[in-house]
Amino acid sequence: MANITEEMVWNKLKEVIDFEIGLDVVSLGLVYEVKVDDKNNIFVLMTMTTPMCPLAGMILQDAEAKLRELDGVNDVKVELTFDPPWTPERVDPNVRSQLGI
User: Do you know which InterPro entries this protein is assigned to (predicted)?
Assistant: First the structure.
């Protein structure tokens, strides 16, 4: 069984797009935490830009589905939090300049 690394998880999460904004959840700063244990269980703590995000469920399901594509993954848990609240300062600096924020 291949060992899954946190880097592999972060790279896979870059494939998860917030369809309202058209950018990936990593660039938007929506991923707060990634953990991988020695049994290839993945835990991701993430947020949305707003608690009222109508696509939250779809984005979380997409994140879980993408992570389950990793070879050797055992279990995946994607948890949603709003503490601390997301702010535009969490967006990747290069993306912020492209967006003009």
Answer: Fe-S_Maturation_MIP18 (IPR052339), FSCA_dom_sf (IPR034904), MIP18-like (IPR002744)
Q: Which whole-number Å values give the CA distances from 61 to 2, 17, 55, 101, in the listed order? A: 24, 11, 10, 28
Mean pLDDT over the full length of the chain = 94
CA distance 66 to 61: 9
| Residue 53, token pair as written in the block | 């995000």
Residue 59: what are its φ and ψ, rounded to 5°? -65, -45
Beta partners for 76?
42
Domain 6-83, what architecture? 2-Layer Sandwich (3.30)
For tokens 């790279």, name the residue. Answer: 11
Q: pTM for the complete prediction? A: 0.93
What are the boundaries of each domain within the chain?
Answer: 6-83
